[in-house]
Every structure is written in C-alpha cells, then in structure tokens.
C-alpha cells in the first residue's frame, strides 16, 4: 500500500523522510487521537473503541496495546523516573536519535536517563498521537525542571518504529515554546 491517505499525508511524509518508510504493511491503518475530540484520551482515564484506534497486536503473545497506550506508557515511565521499567517500552536493541547524539541499546538508554539527561523531572503533554502497529508519531509540549532548578517549557515531536509491542527506533525533536 503506497502513501495515499490524505488525512495522514504529513505523518507519512515525516516517517518517510526520517526513516525511509516508503510503503506500509498490508492492512496497516492510520488513526489519530485528538484530545479535543477524545477527552478521555487527554485525561488518560479511558480507552477508545476498536473502531477509533488501530491496535498493536503481538503475534507471539496475542496481547494488545494501542499506539496511544504505548506512547503514554513511555512518557509515564520517563515523567515518573521509573528507569527500571524502560524495558517495558524499549526493545533491547532500540536506537534513540537525538539532535546531539544517538543512543544505541537499552543499557545505553537507561544510562542516559540516569546520568546525562539535561532535564530533571518532566511532564509530557501529548497533543496528538498518529500511528499504527509499526510506526507512530507524537507531538505536544512538556515542562521540565533543569539541572540548575530552572523551569523549562518546550514543544516536542517524537517518531517511533515499533516491533513486538516495543519501540525499536525513536527520533526526538525539541523546540523552544514561543513566548
């Protein structure tokens, strides 16, 4: 299936540009979680119906996790600094591309969060999550406390490639929030 869905043309363009994804697997469906249209998703207290979201299904375990659930779990683990749980969302061979560096492997990612991250406590607020079982894009804003105690507010965009319910590749982009 080629890029042909008008609703997700920009997300497909970004994924193609960042990851070289030219075609989507057979049966892949796009879905958009818009907090304005789905207040339960914005609050993190409810789930959309099967008709509203594409489920990520693991062929090995038959467990289901939506793209929305995966991304929200990742941000919860990071925001709550539950570093021992990073393996729930990142694959052992995961690669994170950041503006200043590339992190390769779960151990390296955990070390980054424990010792190098320029932010202290964070609070991610996703505005939209677009994706399917293989590729997800998310953007929003977050606040953080810097290492020197200063308040930092920025916008972010993340893209994810997913395999067996875990992130295998993440690209993170940060943008200063307009004042």
UniProtKB/TrEMBL annotation:
<feature type="domain" description="SnoaL-like">
    <location>
        <begin position="71"/>
        <end position="169"/>
    </location>
</feature>
<feature type="region of interest" description="Disordered">
    <location>
        <begin position="38"/>
        <end position="62"/>
    </location>
</feature>
<dbReference type="InterPro" id="IPR037401">
    <property type="entry name" value="SnoaL-like"/>
</dbReference>
<protein>
    <recommendedName>
        <fullName>SnoaL-like domain-containing protein</fullName>
    </recommendedName>
</protein>
<dbReference type="InterPro" id="IPR032710">
    <property type="entry name" value="NTF2-like_dom_sf"/>
</dbReference>
<dbReference type="Pfam" id="PF12680">
    <property type="entry name" value="SnoaL_2"/>
</dbReference>
